[in-house]
């Protein structure tokens, strides 16, 4: 035995075929239960409306995009919020039970901590902006949309991967 | 008749829990594994997404053919092809730079990653920027409306089973080609490597 090995062994990831079959069945279940697919950014839009309402109510309420979400006074009360809460719990259960939960700033192999932190935030901002233009994200339009054979889903995936390939070559310091 | 159109708390928690559980087990909490797809050294993102798309698409087709799922009853995103191309490009660039997409940042955060939390805060900031510039960018959200129809069978005028067969073939090709390219690098990132500092 290697004495420097961690006491709680890390369980391997599922093979991509197994993970893909499982993800497809979960997505199919979601369509059958709800009539729509899985998502994520619907929640972040509601979180932006809610937090905007807390910090600057008047300007958020007057905003033509976020204002309508504040109308009923409960911008977070929506199926997508419960679903993202479920994602958090599911990810926690999976990482914890497999010995893969560890608090850290990840992806700093060739990057300094500050740079990685700023790029994580900046990348999130780009994605948050883009998700509002596309009315969805990788989960909502790319995965769920393509699964309904939506043209929008496949065009989204094409643009997403083209821009990702390009950006990962042009921008140094991404996570690796 | 399906779907049940249940958008309550329990249905959200259940679907979300399974989604998060599968994504973490696929390794998609790791920004290094996720962005390795764009460096072409790890094809797990393509493999998992394409397999899932095929399974769901075939499943929806079979349920409809069997008469248990009502036709035209599941949500199909509209074919605003310019909007999804612009938005998809922003999300792809943000993914390469920041290490996540919106859903996987939640998975990263709840496997302990501070950068996942920062990415999520960035998502909220990006949404504020969009909302602040809404008058200027509203036109982008409906850009490139395709009149040809929202789904591939409608837009291409081809039967659904043929589209599904092509997608299955594409998924098989991704596994073969991706597997070969992965081996030219050091193979896909495994769980042990994802835990190293």
TrEMBL record, chain A:
Top-rank taxon, per record: Bacteria
Any one Gene Ontology cellular component term annotated for this protein: plasma membrane
Segments passing through the bilayer: 13-33, 77-96, 117-135, 147-167
Protein known as: YeeE/YedE family protein
Keyword Iron-sulfur: no
InterPro entries on file: Sulf_transp_TsuA/YedE (IPR007272)
Location(s), subcellular: Cell inner membrane
PANTHER family, alphabetized: INNER MEMBRANE PROTEIN YEDE, SULPHUR TRANSPORT DOMAIN-CONTAINING PROTEIN
Alphabetical keyword list: Cell inner membrane, Cell membrane, Membrane, Transmembrane, Transmembrane helix, Transport
Family of the protein in this entry: Belongs to the TsuA/YedE (TC 9.B.102) family.
Organism placement in taxonomy: Bacteria, Pseudomonadati, Pseudomonadota, Betaproteobacteria, Rhodocyclales
Membrane topology: Multi-pass membrane protein
Protein source organism: Nitrogeniibacter mangrovi
Pfam families: Sulf_transp
Automatic annotation (TrEMBL), chain B:
tRNA-binding as UniProt keyword: no
InterPro entries documented for this protein: Sulf_transp_TsuA/YedE
Pfam families: Sulf_transp (PF04143)
Keyword Disulfide bond: no
Keywords per UniProt: Membrane, Transmembrane, Transmembrane helix
Transmembrane feature ranges: 6-23, 44-63, 75-102, 114-134, 154-177
The protein's name in its UniProt record: YeeE/YedE family protein
The species this protein was found in: Nitrogeniibacter mangrovi
